[in-house]
Amino acid sequence: MTALSARALRKSYGDLEVVSGVDLAVAPGECFGLLGPNGAGKTTTLKLCLGLIEPDSGEIELLGEPVPRKAREARARVGVVPQFDNLDPDFTVEENLVVYARYFGIAKEEIRERISALLEFAGLAGRGDSKITTLSGGMKRRLTLARALVNDPQLVFMDEPTTGLDPQARHLIWERLRRLTQEGKTLVLTTHFMEEAERLCHRLAIMDRGRIIAEGSPRALIAEHIEPQVLEVHGPGYETWMQRAKGLAPRVERVGDTVYCYGEDIEPVLKSISGELSYLHRPASLEDVFLKLTGRDLRD
Length: 300
Description:
- This protein is of the alpha/beta class.
- The chain has helices at residues 42-50, 71-75, 93-102, 108-121, 137-147, 167-182, 194-200, 218-225, 238-245, 267-271, 286-294, and strands at 4-13, 16-26, 31-35, 57-62, 65-67, 78-81, 155-159, 186-190, 203-208, 211-216, 229-234, 251-255, 258-263, 278-283.
- The protein is globular, with a radius of gyration of 22 Å.
C-alpha cells in the first residue's frame, strides 16, 4: 500500500506542459523529497496530488482515496505547509491554531487540548497569546508547521519548509520533521536545499522540465551519478593548471573561475596544486548530482 501514488500525470497551461507523465509512489512513514530547479513542475505536482487543480490525464491516489474525485475526504487526513507563510496577523498564535482546526470540524474543546503539545512541538511554549507580527521568521515557520498538524494528519505536504530561515531555525525544523517520521507520519517535501534533502529524505525524485529524471535514496543517487571525490580549485593561474588536471582526473569542469575535478582518487590532482591556487577537497554530495542532471544555468 502507498500513502501517495501518481501514474502518468500530465498538466498543461496553454501550449506549455508543466507536468509530463510523472509517476510517483510514496510509502507510509517515509520522507519523500521532490527536487528540481525553478519551473520544473514541483509545486504543480503537489497541487495535483492534493486535488487543488485537476490533471489533464493520469491517476492519483492519496491515502487510499482517488483524487480529485475524493480529494476533500483525503485532505481531512493531510497537513499542508505552504511555500509562504499565510498566518492570520489579526489573530494570536493560539487563535491561528484554533481557527484553522475549525475548518476540519474539530471541536474547540478538543483543539484546546492539543494546543499545548503543538506549541511545545513548535518551540513556541508560552507564546500562545503573542501576536503574529511579534514573531521572528523562524517562529512563524514553526507555527505554520504546527498548524499543519492540528488535524493529526497521516501525511504532511511541505513546499520549501525552511526557505529564508537562519541555520539555527533550519536545524530546529529538521529535528521536528525527523520526529514526525519517527512517529510514523509520511512527509512529502520540495526543497532547494540539497543538504536538507540529504539529511531528511529516505527517497527522493529529481524533476526537470515536468519530468522525473532520477529517483532513489540520496546515497544511491550520489553513488550512481557522481564520482566519490570532488576537488574545487580557483585562484591565479587556474586556467593553466586546469589543462594539467585534465590528464590527472577522469572528469574536469570549469564553472566561472572555479575548476571542479571528479574522481575515485583525487590525490594525484591534489599534489599538482601549487602557487596561489586555493582548493576545497570534499566527498561528492547530492548537490553535485542535482547540478549534473539539471545543469548549472540559472532558472527564473
